[in-house]
Design a protein that fits this description.
By secondary structure, this protein is of the alpha/beta class. The protein folds into 2 domains: about 40-70 and about 335-475, Aspartate Aminotransferase, domain 1, CATH 3.90.1150.10; about 80-330, Type I PLP-dependent aspartate aminotransferase-like (Major domain) (Aspartate Aminotransferase, domain 2, 3-Layer(aba) Sandwich), CATH 3.40.640.10. It is about 40% helix and about 15% strand. The protein has helices spanning about 10-15, 15-25, 30-35, 80-90, 105-115, 130-140, 165, 170-175, 190-205, 225-240, 290-300, 315-330, 330-355, 380, 395-415, 440-455, 460-475, and strands at about 45-50, 55, 60-65, 120-125, 150-155, 185, 210-215, 215, 220-225, 240-245, 270-275, 285-290, 360-365, 370-375, 420, 420, 430-435. Strand 1 and strand 2 form a beta hairpin. Helix 5 (about 105-115) runs parallel beside helix 12, helix 6 (about 130-140) crosses helix 11 and helix 9 (about 190-205) runs parallel beside helix 10. The radius of gyration is 23 Å and the shape is globular.
Length: about 475
């Protein structure tokens, strides 16, 4: 057993992968460690990164096609982001202080509002998307003089894993084992009739104070339909609830728009939640931006001034980093490049489907948020599922496809030095095709050429066998 020890930064540099595994097992998460250690990427030490490339301690160059699960919109260590942070530190700028003004946070709030519709003006900065969601719930609830009782959310949504945000995350609540916030009611995803039905039911029991949606679900790779959005805003006018748009993952050009909701005509929320790409790949920062009217209703009185605060609200370097990120994203040439990239990925996905209709069931997505659902091969996988209880695998066909996608992801890494991702949502079974926005055409072509070669051969399930055998041992 690894002894507890106070490490220096220099000592950390010499840790072996086995030592890292052991530290993770003892002090972080033993089951996750053993699962990841069964995967090809789980046995490499990643020392440095630039753009869309990772570099291991053994000198391997890995194409990171995960997009950092939404965080690395601008890739690893973008030079303008690094320059901003290095200069901030060299000049010993004021970092964090809750009771003095931060010119960086002041400028960041204006910059974000500049990119959004005119009514969205008031910003509040936090550290994670789930925190932004919880702050959004509070401001919506508080904005009614006569309190309303219910918040509505999609049955297939994902808004975070805190108690509050988890209570309104349909994909998380499916297997939730934690306490839940009261008065959270789900409606069927993209079903305007069910939405209206639930609003009417709640209206007779205390009323709805807000409805939270993802205009585009990064987990499902599906958008809210036009008729759903149109009905949502008609119901808002009638029943006077607030609307929260969660664009934590999808904001900042993940679609061909700066924000996905801009794909709908004449639509703007009362509150929008943002994070991930906002931090430029270096800063842990999130925000909610609030309509002036909603803000004044909730926090406009002097005795309500400090009803929502946070320790790290004034982080200077985080704010400066976000300002630098927004300036990169706002460049016209960046917008043009994102559109070209989206078109290229869409074209490559269609070509792959045409070449391998016997192995690909479906392609789905928008912009740079895409996925491939593969046809599973039960005959090759059947023996691996022996002794795994049905309670663990509730939908066998769905799970088989997810396992197939995971096996292909392992092969991409092992044979072609490509890191890819599988969404962990209980509603997702696709291989994610969602690279950073700074990926080059030749890197996109390499990814699809490599995937094409794998699909021409038999899929190797060796890594999956190791994982499933581990799971069996736990049962």
């Amino acid at each position: 057993m690894t002894d507890r020890k106070l490490y220096t930064v220099e000592e950390v540099k010499s840790l072996s992968i086995n030592e890292i595994h052991e530290l993770y097992r003892r002090f972080i998460n033993p089951n996750q460690t053993d699962i990841f250690a069964s995967l090809p990427f789980g046995n490499d030490i990643f020392e440095s990164a630039e753009g869309v490339n990772l570099f291991t301690s053994e000198g391997k160059k890995i194409l990171d096609f995960t997009g950092g699960l939404g965080v690395l919109g601008l890739g690893h260590n973008h030079p303008k982001i690094l320059e901003t942070r290095i200069n901030f530190q060299k000049e010993k700028k004021v970092e964090v202080h809750k009771i003095i003004f931060s010119k960086y946070m002041a400028a960041l709030s204006s910059s974000i509002s500049y990119l959004l519709p005119e009514n969205l003006t008031k910003s509040f900065f936090l550290n994670s998307g789930a925190e932004a969601v919880e702050a959004a719930i509070k401001v919506c609830f508080k904005s009614f003089k006569t309190p309303k009782k219910y918040i509505l959310y999609s049955n297939k949504s994902y808004h975070g894993k805190l108690i509050g945000s988890g209570s309104i995350s349909g994909s998380y609540k499916k297997n939730n084992q934690f306490p839940e916030m009261k008065n959270c009611i789900s409606f069927n995803f993209n079903d305007p009739d069910d939405l209206e039905k639930k609003i009417l039911e709640c209206n007779n029991k205390g009323g709805v104070y807000c409805i939270i949606i993802e205009p585009y679900s990064a987990s499902l790779l599906e958008s809210c339909e036009d008729n759903f959005i149109e009905k949502l805003f008609k119901l808002k006018s009638k029943y006077e609830f607030k609307i929260i748009f969660d664009e934590v993952f999808t904001g900042f050009y993940k679609s061909k728009k700066m924000f996905y909701f801009q794909n709908f005509k004449n639509v703007t929320p009362d509150v929008i939640c943002l994070s991930k790409t906002l931090g430029g790949g270096k800063s842990s920062i999130s925000c909610l931006v609030i309509d002036d009217n909603t803000y004044n209703q909730a926090y406009g009185k002097i005795n309500e001034t400090f009803l929502h605060t946070t320790t790290y609200n004034g982080f200077g370097e985080e704010s400066a980093t976000a300002i630098a990120a927004l300036n990169i994203l706002a460049e016209e040439k960046f917008k043009i490049r994102v559109n070209q990239l989206s078109d290229l990925i869409s074209k490559k996905l269609r070509e792959l489907l045409t070449k391998h209709p016997n192995k690909i069931e479906k392609i789905k997505g928008n912009g740079i948020l895409n996925g491939i659902i593969f046809k599973s091969y039960p005959s090759q996988l059947a023996s691996l599922f022996e002794k795994i209880p049905s309670s663990f695998i509730k939908d066998r066909a769905f799970f088989l496809k997810k396992i197939t996608a995971t096996a292909i992801s392992c092969q991409l890494y092992k044979d072609f030095n490509i890191l890819s991702a599988i969404n962990d949502s209980s509603f997702s079974n696709h291989l994610c095709v969602s690279p950073s926005l700074v990926v080059k055409d030749e890197e996109v072509n390499y990814f699809f050429d490599s995937l094409d070669k794998i699909l021409k051969e038999n899929i190797n399930y060796k890594s999956i066998e190791l994982i499933l055998n581990y799971i069996k041992s736990k049962f």
